[in-house]
Write a structure and sequence with these properties.
Elements: E1 2-4, H1 8-20, H2 25-50, E2 56-59, H3 71-77, H4 80-83, H5 90-98, H6 100-111, E3 115-118, H7 123-127, H8 166-182
Parallel strand pairs: 1-2, 2-3
Helix pairs in contact: 1-2, 2-5, 2-6
Length: 185
């Protein structure tokens, strides 16, 4: 089994320069998806080629950026969401583009029997008591909870700790959806 968690840093690298060219958030999301798809195709195919019995599992990033000051990173990645006055919610605009990484995992799994895509979107919102969010259907109008997405971890990594952390909330849902069934425990 190979668990892959990639593509978030691609957004940090690709989207600001795309926005600087005057493209919309959706156009920059398209560029991100094109680049990530090409890279992920190569990675999962290389895993399979190296070991045809290997199974690959992955999922998109949960809704994040809740920590103090994290909105500055959001505004750097997809500034169009804050500059376009027609956007009803800059956070919804941002989340709409970022959760497309989940779609890429679903496309990988649909095209390859050795890839399993999980959907953990909304996990940390639920763990923080958000009554709108559901697993797989996050509250797109809110960032992830600050306590689970701190600025001390660059706003894109869940908080660490044995209990009550973002990482543990995500790992608990990962276990529930995948490992409990795969391992039969």
């Amino acid at each position: 089994m190979v668990w892959i968690t990639l593509m978030g840093n691609d957004a940090l690298a690709v989207c600001p320069s795309c926005a600087a060219k005057g493209k919309t958030a959706a156009e920059c999301g398209d560029e991100l998806m094109t680049q990530c798809t090409a890279n992920m195709d190569k990675i999962v195919d290389a895993v399979h080629e190296a070991n045809p019995a290997a199974q690959v599992v992955g999922f998109g990033y949960d809704i994040m950026f809740g920590g103090f000051g994290c909105n500055l990173i959001q505004k750097d990645v997809f500034p169009q969401c804050w500059h376009n006055k027609s956007e009803a919610s800059p956070i919804r605009c941002f989340n709409t583009e970022l959760v497309r990484i989940q779609e890429l995992w679903e496309d990988l799994a649909a095209a390859r029997p050795y890839v399993t895509a999980l959907n953990l979107l909304g996990t940390t919102q639920i763990a923080d008591g958000d009554t709108v969010a559901q697993i797989g259907k996050p509250n797109m109008d809110k960032n992830g909870p600050a306590k689970f997405w701190p600025d001390t971890l660059e706003c894109i990594h869940p908080s660490k700790g044995a209990k009550g952390s973002g990482a543990m909330a995500i790992m608990a849902e990962f276990y529930k959806q995948y490992w409990s069934k795969t391992l039969g425990c």
